[in-house]
Amino acid sequence: MDPIRNPYAPGAGQRPPELAGRDEQLENFRVVLERVARGRPERSMVLTGLRGVGKTVLLNALRSAAVRAKWGTGKLEARPEQRLRRPLSSALHQAVRELGHPQSDDVDHVLGVIKSFAQRDAAPNAKLRDKWSPGIDAPAVPGRADSGDIEIDLVELLTDAGGLAADLGRGVAIFIDEMQDLHPDDVSALCAACHEISQASLPVIVVGAGLPHLPAVLSASKSYSERLFRYARIDRLSRDAADAALQRPAEDEEASYAKDALEAMYAATGGYPYFIQAYGKVAWDVAPQSPISAEDVAVAAPAAEAELAVGFFGSRYERATPGEREYLRAMADAASALGPDEVDEVESVPTSAVAEVLGRKPQSLSPARDALLKKGLIYSGERGRIAFTVPHFGKYLRSVS
Prior knowledge:
The longest helix has 24 residues, at 294-317. This protein folds into three domains: 23-233, 3-Layer(aba) Sandwich (Rossmann fold), CATH 3.40.50.300; 240-317; 322-400, Winged helix-like DNA-binding domain superfamily/Winged helix DNA-binding domain (Arc Repressor Mutant, subunit A), CATH 1.10.10. The protein is α/β, with parallel strands linked by helices. A hairpin with a 2-residue loop joins strand 7 and strand 8 (385-388). It has helices at residues 23-37, 55-68, 85-99, 104-119, 150-167, 184-199, 214-221, 225-228, 239-252, 259-269, 273-286, 294-317, 322-336, 351-358, 366-374, 393-400; strands at 44-48, 72-77, 172-177, 204-210, 229-233, 349-350, 378-382, 385-388. The protein has a five-stranded parallel β-sheet, sandwiched between helices. A three-stranded antiparallel β-sheet has the order 6-8-7. It contains 16 helices and eight strands. It starts with 22 loop residues before the first helix and ends with a helix.
């Protein structure tokens, strides 16, 4: 098989050649765009799921849909050490530029508000050289979105941006990846601002993506967040969708898979989109000819697993301290000791079981557990239980221990 024609794309956030199994989310978002643009009430969206299920890819696909609808769009990736003002200012700056509003005075006013919002990140008496500039030529608008109260400022900022979009019968969409990493005050302010904007029927929506515990983060911030967002859980692909993700790109290159090869691929990947791309790429390269067979998949498996061990699993494992790695390995051992009736779909384990594996009191393990939660390596979907944010991570840990 010609490696130059290999269609698979196992890159972080890289769109696969066939975005299989996401038609429902794309159609729901199309309806949201139409309703909001027509002044109909609609909720913002939140995508949740484990690492490697394609949240970022889907987030980008939704943004592309908004661009095709001639909306103004901007995207940011939340980081634990960064507050919201600067990245959101950059995202909204891009959204306003995409709208292409014909009235330059109105555009300059909104850009000035964005600049005021961004520069409020510095102290009130800071010198000009210490103020971050978002690259906006328009002068800042004093007294608008610069109070220092992020909740008040966000409402004013999004109100002005939404008004600009409403003039054109379109909307503004802000896409936030890794949303669970937003600062708690920013999460609270964003929820409150979305609530205000929705009540005012302004065409502004937020589309967030994050780990499975993101709904709990939002709910802890504002109790009404459960009604504020439309939640979509992004999971591994069904067998039919996984087959399509492999077959359609191959068919475009005049190749195919044998039936037993597709069965072997699903067994190896578990239907996780990132794994499908990783195994598909190696299987294509090692196969001598089409159709790709189960034997080819078997030959490809060690190389694919070795690549995942370094780039997908290993890079995350290296971020943990020795004490945290001990906790991770204990989680994997605790999961393997559970009976068939005790294992849920994300292979979560009780924190007490982890402590039992290590022969320690649960309270003494709190620092390691909290550090792993902050690093996004584990999450807690319910009280007293934890799970890996990366699928098959337990299997990887047991293989290297």
